[in-house]
Amino acid sequence: MAITVLKVIRVILLCLSCYGYLYLIVDKGKIKVEFSPAILFSAIGSAMFFAGILNILKETCVAILVAGIIFAIYSFVKKYNPLRFICPGTIFFLICLVYFGYFYYGRKLQSYDDFSHWGTVARLMLESNRLPNFQDNIIMFQSYPTGSAGFIYFIGKATGIRSEWIMPFSQTMLTMSCFVCLFAFVKHKITGYIGVVCFCITVICSQAFVLSGLLVDVLLPMIALSGMLIGIYYTKEINRVLWAVMPSVVFLIAIKNSGLFFSVVIIVYVLLCVQWKTVKKGSLAALVLSPFISLVLWQKHVKLVFSDGLSSKHTMAVDSLKESFLEKDPKIIAEIKEKFFSAVFSLQNIFLLFLLLAGVT
């Protein structure tokens, strides 16, 4: 009973800490409420990624938690009205958290990929307070970044919950925060919100959206979508919100090496929209260089802690990509192209609904 009460208290403290950061993002950063959860969670995931490389996971987790609580107390002192956070997007987000908390509670990991990598890495981090290294022979894909596992670590450590269900629930929190960004673009109140909710539910219920596991194939494009949506929404004020885009472009690298491609797309868009006469060159340079620096740091880390890590499967390197490409003959490449365009323009592609949604809302 005492342990349960302690966990409830820690969950409340985590919520309080998140509230403090959301206050900072919305009130001080002048960012629309709908974007704040995605910015916060991407920033936490990025911070835990770098903390893992520096071998200070536990200390960083405590620091993030305490700093958020201090910001929350500051907002109370300033008599900030928390009702400003209430909007259709955040209501949808909270409903999803309640539902998926009920859905995942008590469940065990089932996917093969969870046992072969994602779940194994997250469990190891929670138990040892460090990233995998040469001591861990069970890690099959040594060069895979641990960004999503880092966020899971933060939620697990902050709440004190070690059960397996907290892992997919934490990752679902990340994904749901990205969906909330869509609500910022609604113009026609009733039809717009209904359309966004229907789209989100359609995606969540689709076969491609694997809610029962820790695969990052859906999380990766959703984080990229959130970063791009922030850039699009603030196109005319892009100079002011460079800091808000940065967590996404960094966290994409932390989730998967190939996230670099998404980061480059976001950066190119920002560079096309930036107002060069008034932009702070240091902030712009930080945004442009941050994903590349993150990738280099990760590769250096893998090379240091694993004797043969950079030659493992799925390594993001020029030689690895060249070898993978040369393995495919023209017939296979043509087949891949055909299947790709067939999938993209199929009526079963739920993301075509997003294009229709953009016109309706």
General description of the model:
- Helices cover 68% and strands 0% of the residues.
- By secondary structure, it is mostly helical.
- The radius of gyration is 21 Å and the shape is globular.
- It has 15 helices and no strands.
Mean pLDDT: 84
Shape descriptor: globular
Pattern of helices and strands: HHHHHHHHHHHHHHH
Q: Supply the number of helical segments.
A: 15
State which percent range the strand residues make up.
under 5%
Distance between the termini: 48 Å
Topology:
Blueprint: H1 2-28, H2 36-53, H3 57-77, H4 88-104, H5 112-128, H6 147-159, H7 166-180, H8 189-204, H9 219-233, H10 242-255, H11 259-273, H12 281-305, H13 318-326, H14 330-344, H15 352-360
Helix pairs in contact: 1-2, 1-3, 2-3, 2-6, 2-7, 2-10, 3-6, 4-7, 5-6, 6-7, 7-9, 8-15, 9-10, 9-11, 10-11, 10-12, 11-12
Which features would summarize this protein structure in a list?
361 residues; mainly alpha; 15 helices; 68% helix; globular
The gist of it:
The chain is mainly α and 361 residues long. The chain has 15 helices and no strands. Helix 7 (166-180) packs parallel to helix 9 (219-233) and helix 11 runs antiparallel to helix 12.
